[in-house]
Amino acid sequence: MPISNYPNGFTSGLTVRGVPLTVAHPGQVFFVNGSSVLAPGGVGGSNGNPGTYQRPFATIDFAIGQCVANRGDIIFVMPGHTETVSTAAGIALDVAGVAVIGLGVGSLRPTVNLTATSATVTMSAANCCFKNILFTGGIDAIVSMIVVSAADCTIEGCELRDVTGQMTLGILTTAGADRLKILKHVHKGDTAAGTNAAIRLVGGDNIEITAEVIDGNFATGGIDIVTTASTNLYVHDIGRFYTRNSADIFLIDTITGSTGQIGPNINLRLTDNAANITEAITGATFVVMDPVNVVNLAGEKGMLINWVASTDA
């Protein structure tokens, strides 16, 4: 069924059955569809199309290039869409205020497959968003899948998944990624060695991280802070963290001096049955808010992380 459209809008707004209808965004809407399932009466994706629902673009990066900074443009990526990234910044979210939203669930989520070790998806403009996109590693030893260097960006409900070998890093930030939100994140890494961290932070203020799953063989740690201290970091609501590496570290501040709150509602599964409960989170200048549960052997129940408790003294 075609979508109706009134090209010049309604100057005084529109009310249907007494309910005012408002546009939830001020900008343009574009569609991307590289799948064989087309809109009714529509055609296949092409960057020669106007980017409408029935005449979508073929690639996400081209759609980004059609956006206007800070207008609030939205790019909807259709279910079943797949595309390959083989170069650095092969998809560059470099227009401020743009949201790239994947449609579909499960295997129908739009998939971006990285096929070179230097291939990256970048977020270099402020106030941008990726939502509900599956990023896959189609080659071993990808240096970093997503690189964020701008402030006030969001990665929500996305999944990073190893398919061939192991990505070295999942998400990498620079010190410019202030107020980054990584929400409802899924990292499904290979069980073999080769990954350093799911998320590596290089500085950044007021970053927030939540995750449904972070699973992999993390030589350094699930979340790794390097080079520049991160301030006021907030990591909470991690449904399941599982490291297959004997380093047994969920979060590590290799700089020391990073600040923030770790917890509540974090569940950590370690590999070795050892004295590693306290050490699962390193960084003396963080505070921990229970419950942060840690278990290190199959058949056992997790215990609260045994950091030094505050006293009313």
List the helices and strands and how they pair.
Blueprint: E1 14-16, E2 19-21, E3 29-32, H1 60-65, E4 74-77, E5 82-85, E6 91-93, E7 99-102, E8 111-114, E9 121-123, E10 129-131, E11 134-137, E12 146-148, E13 154-156, E14 159-162, E15 169-173, E16 181-188, E17 197-201, E18 208-216, E19 223-225, E20 233-243, E21 251-253, E22 260-262, E23 266-269, E24 286-288, E25 292-295, E26 303-304
Parallel strand pairs: 3-4, 4-7, 5-8, 6-9, 7-10, 8-11, 9-12, 10-13, 11-14, 12-15, 13-16, 14-16, 15-17, 16-18, 17-19, 18-20, 19-21, 20-22, 20-23, 22-24, 23-25
Antiparallel strand pairs: 1-2, 25-26
Instruction: Give the overall shape, derived from the CA principal axes.
Output: globular
Order of helices and strands: EEEHEEEEEEEEEEEEEEEEEEEEEEE
**Integer-rounded radius of gyration:** 21 Å
Could you say which structural class the secondary elements and strand pairing correspond to?
A: mainly beta
What proportion of the residues is helical, as a percent range?
Answer: under 10%
Tally of discrete structural domains:
1
Can you give the mean pLDDT? 93
Quote the distance from N terminus to C terminus.
Answer: 69 Å
Give me the number of helical elements: 1
Uncertain stretches: none
Largest sheet: 17 strands, mixed
Strand share of the residues? Answer: 25-35%
In total, the number of strands is 26
Notes on the structure:
By secondary structure, the chain is an all-beta fold. The protein has one domain (84-304). The protein is built from one helix and 26 strands. The chain has one helix at residues 60-65; strands at residues 14-16, 19-21, 29-32, 74-77, 82-85, 91-93, 99-102, 111-114, 121-123, 129-131, 134-137, 146-148, 154-156, 159-162, 169-173, 181-188, 197-201, 208-216, 223-225, 233-243, 251-253, 260-262, 266-269, 286-288, 292-295, 303-304. The strands form three sheets. The protein has a 17-stranded mixed sheet that branches. Strands 6-9-12-15-17-19-21 form a seven-stranded parallel sheet. Strands 1-2 form a two-stranded antiparallel sheet. A hairpin with a 7-residue loop joins strand 25 (292-295) and strand 26 (303-304). The longest helix is centred in the first third of the chain and has 6 residues, at 60-65. The model has no long low-confidence stretch (mean pLDDT 93).
